[in-house]
Amino acid sequence: MSILRSTYAKIIISTILGTIGIAGGIYLGFALTGERPQTPWSAAPPPEPEFPPEKRPVFEAGDLFPTVDCIDVDGNTTNFERVIDGRPTAFLFVQYGCGPCYELLRFWVEEIDPILIPQAQVVICLPDDAGEPPTPYENLIHGKTVVKYAKNLFQKTYNFVLYPTVVTVDKSGFIQHIQLGFDQTLDIEVYRVMTRSGR
């Protein structure tokens, strides 16, 4: 009986020591490789979310900007080719009542307008169901070209559903850069096309 107890005790002890040895080896391996075991507390943070395909316009840098019709502030029909008119252009797609849109316009007036290259222009693009500008927006769009575009057309044809969006084009109308959204800063490519500091 004592032999059985002794054998049983040895098996238990061997199992415990073996488990400790395996765990120690794993942690030693992580220590030697400079890695840490992944736990719910030490796991790397998830990557920054990207805009899903349904929020990305089908046009992209290098494409000719759509030459579809739009409406100027006097209610006349024109098109985006005539609006560009051979000038480097930043199209700011915004809508009233959109917090990031307001912040983009405010940032543009304060930070970008003073350093625009002389031949550049800024075009405020509003959906065709936008009404009169609320008072807070009046000074932000003053002196800029304002057009309204067919929202349904842009959504269905160009997959365009995100506000705000900044699209810069060169004087020939080719898209140079598209920035989706606004988080208190503009992409460096916007500065390169539109400002003195980017040249």
Describe this structure in words.
This protein is of the alpha/beta class and 199 residues long. The protein is 37% helix and 18% strand. It contains six helices and seven strands; from the N terminus they run αββαβαβαβαββα. The chain has helices spanning 2-33, 80-84, 99-112, 135-141, 151-158, 188-194; strands spanning 69-72, 77-79, 89-93, 121-127, 145-149, 165-169, 175-180. The protein has a seven-stranded mixed beta sheet with strand order 2-1-5-4-3-6-7. Helix 4 (135-141) links the parallel strand 4 (121-127) and strand 5. The longest helix is centred in the N-terminal third of the chain and has 32 residues, at 2-33.
List the helices and strands and how they pair.
Elements lengths: L1 H32 L35 E4 L4 E3 H5 L4 E5 L5 H14 L8 E7 L7 H7 L3 E5 L1 H8 L6 E5 L5 E6 L7 H7 L5
Order of helices and strands: HEEHEHEHEHEEH
Q: N-to-C terminal Cα separation, in Å?
A: 91 Å
Sheet having the most strands: 7 strands, mixed
Strand order, largest beta sheet: 2-1-5-4-3-6-7
Low-confidence stretches: 1-5, 23-49
Query: Globular, elongated, flat, extended or rod-shaped: what is the shape?
Result: globular
Q: What structural class do you assign from the helix and strand content?
A: alpha/beta
